[in-house]
Design a protein that fits this description.
By secondary structure, the protein is of the alpha+beta class. The protein is built from six helices and seven strands; from the N terminus they run αααβαβββαβαββ.
Length: 190
């Protein structure tokens, strides 16, 4: 669906407001950005997942948000990755406006093991199940490509400990482990 189709579906009052108050008073470059912003809710309507294995121009907005979250929340327990190593990814749960709801830094330890190296949900997004939804997505996705062991080593008193237990992780020393048997085809429903 293109912009023209969507604009045609808008009411006359909405279009008039759009034109008079916003569109008319901006430069050409800004007009294109305004249209993109206004069309975003039409393009997407639910939360989605974003996997980043390297920073580039396509994910500058996420990179900028992540830096802002780390600074505003005074997060010192995780170091921002300027360059993401080949065996690691940052996986984000984002809303329909590309706002970060939660993220997890994962490390592929071996072919069969994926480690939740770090996870974080911004303070204003907590207690809504976002991190759980993200972990369930990761487990479902990676089990399909042969990962059978999911591990996490939370620091003492981490918020993720009760969640790991709730998801079925078992404590082995300082590590929490979730092992998938070869018979298990579906773990969680998202």
């Amino acid at each position: 669906m293109d912009i023209k189709d969507n604009l045609q579906k808008m009411s006359k009052n909405d279009l008039q407001w759009l034109y008079n108050d916003i569109y008319k008073s901006n430069t050409y470059k800004n007009k294109k950005e305004i249209i993109d912003i206004l069309m975003k809710p039409i393009k997407t309507s639910v939360n989605s997942f974003l996997e980043i294995s390297k920073w580039d121009k396509n994910n500058k907005n996420i990179q900028k948000q992540l830096k802002k979250i780390l600074k505003e929340d005074k997060l010192t327990s995780w170091q921002y990755l300027k360059k993401i190593p080949a065996n690691q990814k940052l996986i984000f749960l984002i809303d329909k406006y590309d706002i970060i709801l939660s993220f997890i830094h994962v490390t592929k330890v071996t072919k069969e093991e994926l480690q939740f190296s770090f996870s974080y949900t911004p303070k204003d997004k907590r207690r809504k199940g976002y991190n759980k939804q993200l972990r369930e997505y990761i487990i479902n996705k990676y089990q399909k490509i042969g990962v059978s062991d999911f591990t996490s080593i939370p620091f003492d008193g981490a918020n993720s400990e009760p969640l790991l237990i709730k998801l079925g992780f078992k404590k082995e020393g300082k590590k929490y482990v979730y092992r998938i048997s070869t018979n298990n085809t579906s773990i969680f429903t998202i």
